[in-house]
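Dear colleague,

As promised, here are the two records you asked about, laid out in our usual form so they can be pasted straight into your sheet.

NAME FIELD: protein one
SEQUENCE, THEN STRUCTURE:
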Amino acid sequence: MWKVPVACIAFMLLLLFQMTGYAQEQGKTYNGVVYDNATKEPLPGVNILVKGTGQGVVSDIDGKFSITIDTPDPVLIFSFIGMESLEYPLTGQTELEINMDPSEDSLDEVVVVGYGTQKKSDLTGSVGVVGGDEILKAPVANALQGMKGKVAGVNVFLNSGSPSSSPRVLIRGLGTINSSSQPLYVVDGVVMENIEFLNPNDIESMEVLKDASSTAIYGARGANGVVMVTTKRGAKNTGTTIGYDGYFSVGVLPKKMDVLNAEEFMEVLEQGFANHNKYRPDSPIPDFTKNDPNLFDENGNPLYDTDWQEEATRTALSHNHQLSYRSKAEKSSFGAFVNYTDMQGIMLNNYLKRVNGKFAFDADPKEWLSVGLNLLANSTTENVFEESGGHQMPRRSMIEMPAIFPVKFPDGTWSNSSMVEDPYGLEAIPNPVHVLTTQDRLRKRTKLFGNIYTTFHILPGLDLRTQFGFDKNDFNEQIYSPTDLINISSPNGYAYLANERVLYWQQENYLTYTKDFGDHGLNAMAGLSWQKRTSEYFNVSATGFSDDTFKFNRMQSASQPGTPNSGYDEWSMNSYFLRGNYNYKSKYLLTFTGRVDGSSRFGENNKYGVFPSVGVGYVLSKEPFMQGLSGTVDEFKIRSSYGITGNTEIPTYQSLGTVSTGTTLINGSRAPISYVNRLPNPDLEWEKTRQFDIGMDLTLMERALVFSFDYYHKLTTDLLLDRPVPSSTGFAAVRDNIGSVSNKGIEVLVRAFPVTNADFSWESTLNFSYNKNQIEQLGENDEDIFPGPNWVSGSQTILRVGESLSSFWGYERLGTWGTDEATEAAEVGAIPGEAKRSAERKIIGNGLPHWTGSFINNFYYGNFDLTLDVQFVAGVDILQQFFHSTQDRTGYASGLKDVLYDAWTETNQNTMVQQIRNGPYSGQNSEVDSHWVADGSYIRGNLISLGYSFDQSLLDRIGMNKLRVYASVQNAFLIHSDEFKGYDPEASSWEGNQWGQNIFFFQYPRPRTFTLGLSLQF
């Protein structure tokens, strides 16, 4: 699989390098002056490059230049910040006068917004843009991974190193409790579910709509922000191009958790036995022995010292290949793209494989008519990794499985922690290699996605567009856990099958009108939309398998079949929307947006909601009094917006009194039953987010420095919570709108071009954001709510008015009881050496960061390019739930080394680590407390990439347009607090839980990935 591509690449590179030795023609010298065509002033510092080569010069202070060229039929490329780039063919003349035109304002870049595009100069809202090339700089299977750190105010949490995991995205903070916090994803105008399975190679650009002025056009679905994705289509210029992009990557475990080896583990056990009488003097403990001949030699030394982290992980080999065909004729364009991705996880047997195909067609058959079609299909197969909760799964057992056990005994038998004759009382742990290699967790997904549109050009500037889009997803899950996995599925085995079919469609029609009336500019749009989503599902489980021969393929062979489950679900929406943009002299800007949404998901009395917004802008740089600053201040715009958006992402039928069905035993036979399981609430309505934004965009020194700033205040009201009702109703609560949450923050973007010349250029981008989250109201009496995740000590988080969402809830650890505090310790049922905690629980940390950002630098030297991408997070905590079993619960399993080297003893009493004890015999002392909390701030070397693009003159000789090779390392380094003892400070083991961010009971390590890539085009 590796030999053929490597050999082909090596041959191609050798051929290209040989071509560089060809004889060149005699050189010719050209002299010239470069002028600003608007002012007729000479331009110093203009980059002048011979097209297809690395040869170039820079104009002097008088705009003059001189260059000697060997290339036949040369073309000079002139570039200068603030000027339109110019290509100038040399046709014999040697004395040149070059006139460069000022470029359009950088604010005039066209960006995608809801139902159309706008000039950036006309925007009154806050929109972040990420190009497709930026997403692909790192090898990613998921487009959201490539967006991380690229847009201020957008937090992309990569909570797992698994290729099959899905990132969590928060835009401008968390503003909901029971509804979804994910943004709305719109791909080529169609809402897409499961965007994590979209092929990143197909993406042209991603726009993030953040404030109300930009998101209100999506009304009831815009409160969490909107991510607009534009995919690639046909060629932009007449002709045909064929391209290939591919890479091979190697992922490795960047660090290991510092756990006990075999000798250290035995020492911990021995000390725990020795300390038993301090805790339970009236309960005898067996003698400590090391007699098992399968584990110890005749001197009691361990026969094995297994590094379970090493055994359960691997060097992950992944590859990705993309073929593209793009063409353009006079009145049509066509694009076809095929992709194959094979991503291995660093945990054994974890992988993602995806086949993706896409084509797009656009045509203008008549002057008054445009049509287009976009269709995407992909099939994904995964062997997923279990990442939820605190079960005996490999992310836990590769840390807790004692090193004294081998992967397999000499007779080929898989080991587990029960295979010891000595009476240690160990918890039943299956070895992680056994689980990873014998357990199936297969997921298969098929997606069909696309849209078709027709645009009627009714009058100059007036268009009517009608489009139909759909997103069809078929999901199949197959799980089988063998009969010999103790504490998981032994002795009966377990099988589970699930199927789900989801179809979403939308039909939209809208008019757009664009017209300039002298100094006045108008861009208006109005339309209506229908949307519907249906889902049908079925699942069944079974236990009681005599062996593992058929796995999930013959469920009927199980002696204990589970109850089958099936269901159907649907919702629909009907919407009306409009937007108007007005500008006067491109200086004073006004935007009005409104949408009316009607949804089946809400109460009979509140089916429809109205979501308006208004935005204003003032381009100061166009004022006469600013003209004197020309050359210093290029563009300066102030903008502000206010509006209301909604959140409709709740389960269906919440406003209705619903009926559940099932069966029960009556007279020894199964009989069907029905019962009301929810009170109706006809007044149930949308969560509403009111957002104010004020910002500025500033460009200085002939666009060498770009600065953007935003301040926002979001207030989400009518939060959906369970309101208590009188017990006489027969229910404890009813779903109602009774809470509010605020988010306030700033966003800063600075882009600079410190060096720009023919030989070397440097582009630097710094973006960072700050967000403060606060609960403003929780029902009539503002009672505390404990939403989970529920684990040791109950709920790990609390919802409390005046505090932030995702606040950790637990005791404060004050240290360990000392020998001089024995009397005081006894009053609370403790002895010296045990944890000393506060009497009451309190807020001990928070899992949502205050500060996030990135510092990205791109360097260009000749044909080389270098990217250094550093990301940072500050003002956040981590709840290390794994301290429960690796530090506070000794004797049941292995743990961290500090259990042995930093534990309380009579000579080491100034420590947070409790005295070693044997939990199975002596009991345990484990509660969620502040000792488990670590500073979650970090600095990550997200990407280091080095590339080389071959000279066009060489490529022309073999008919190629582009050839670039590159090498990169992802997750190159990580700097974090010494308090944190896990793999990565950004994680969760409560997959899908709203409050699980930075709370984890072990985690999937995030790999360090080395990549070699190739991009070529004919």
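NAME FIELD: protein two
SEQUENCE, THEN STRUCTURE:
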Amino acid sequence: MKKMYRQWLGIAALLCHITMQAAGNKAVVTGTVKDTQGNPIAGVVVTDGKNVTATDRQGIYMLDTDPFRQPMVYISTPADYVLPEKEGVADGFYHYQDTSKVENRCDFILQKRSKQTDDFVFIPISDPQAKNEAQLDRFRKETVPDLIHTADSLKSLEVVGMGLGDLVWDAMDLYAPYRKIVSNLGLTMFQVMGNHGFKLLYSDMERTADPENGYGEKNYYEIFGPTNYSFNIGKVHVIAMKSIDYEGKKKYVERFTEEQLEWLKKDLSYVPEGTTVFLNIHAPVANTTVEGGDNVRNANALFRILRPYKVHIFSGHTHYYENTLPAAGIYEHNIGAACGAWWAGHVNRCGAPNGYLVVTVKGDDVKWRYKATGRPADYQFRVYKPGEFETQKQYVVANIWDWDIAYTVNWYEDGVLKGAMQQFDDEDQDYLTMKKGKRTGYHTRHLFRACPSKQAKKIKIEVKNRFGEIFIQEVEL
């Protein structure tokens, strides 16, 4: 009798599966969002990565879904509530659906903040990109202690971290140890998916004919959750999106799919125009260095959606540092990689040091400064004496990685102001030295030079950023 009962259960499950597939896997997910006291929370945005809705006055939501294509349901945490996390890694804001059911229930509980604050620190970290245990150990021993020190220095402020993709280098077995490494750092760590984050054998979910047979994001999903999501903190709406259209076996195109862009429109429909938005992606949208490009192909479609907002885009992928203003109200920070040039040494292809960005937010006021791994916070540029930069032997050269058009760069000879340094385009000497002199053609535009006189004894370089902060280095000749 028991054997027959089990057989009937198996047949029923199979019929349910067949029925869902015949109906295009149509299903519904319902649930509630409440606080820790059991009070309903209205207006919380809920999504499965395609469809989007919000909770009603009773904290109830209902969402049409396809649990095979959209395996998770998740919320955009409101600013009045603590960001859900487990051991310092974002967690608990998503639930998996049961693919055997045509109706799922997913409930969420949020903790009300004890005090509302508009001030916080946001730390994007690009491309840890560990290929093996040795590289992961460098991240553990170099980047992480520096990050902990930075977070500890900001104890009075809430700190949110964001891994900008390529957390590992095609090594799915390193996802779990990576998560352990970024746990309990004194911040809440979120993640973005990069091109090296997919399981090589499979294409991504949208391209996969039958997700049950495997898809590229599966390992990432299991460790970190969804790839297109949002949350709110202070006055800022934070978004993370996959900017890689993955075909499988290392073939991909940097672009957003139409489904992703539609999801972004729906997500932003709940955000008032004029709000500050932080968009976190892996591949950049506007890197102008041809050799380091790899930009998202349909960036203009993205810009049209973002037009009503004040936007900062944080990206990685290139292992180049470049700041750009690609459209009105949009500033892209294509930051240096934590691994630099793939753990070959201590600099990126443009000469920017391994590191991460520290973004200080006070309401709608956003300021930032790059933090070089193992260096003091005010280390914002590198100086080469005459003779040290192979192609510029007569010049003092400065590599100012966080440069943008609002910077001023002046130089002094023996205490006398000589004027602005000349910007030029070349390969960085520190990178070339790391590569044992082998030229690669990777030019950068954040290089500046000045030609001192033969009698000069001391050169001072004064760099002022867009916030009026001044950084000075002096060299004896």
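A couple of things worth noting about protein two: The first strand starts at residue 27 and ends at 35. The longest helix spans residues 2-22.

Best,
R.
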